[in-house]
């Protein structure tokens, strides 16, 4: 698979993922199905979900730069380091989700695995 296709697939996964996190913030998605069902404070939910949205949108920006959908607003080295960071983050998240107690998070393990594999394809590209 070519890097540009991998980036488009990633963007098509990440944008709905950001909307999912927004749904949690807006109480559309039940909080019990995220973070292992262990969040018992609304302020903690808002904090963690806000961070999740910002991190997801940062990855969307990084991928948009790498795919040349956005101009080079960050140096290539920052883009590459960011992509490695996200590959490690999503790989660890896959492991955590695979052993989660909730079925929803176990399903998300498949999604995070796909994201990890696609990030690997993007990183493999020399461009």
Automatic annotation (TrEMBL):
Keywords: Membrane, Transmembrane, Transmembrane helix. The chain crosses the membrane at residues 9-31, 43-63, 83-100, 106-123. The keyword Membrane applies. It comes from the Bacteria. This is Uncharacterized protein. It comes from Algoriphagus formosus.
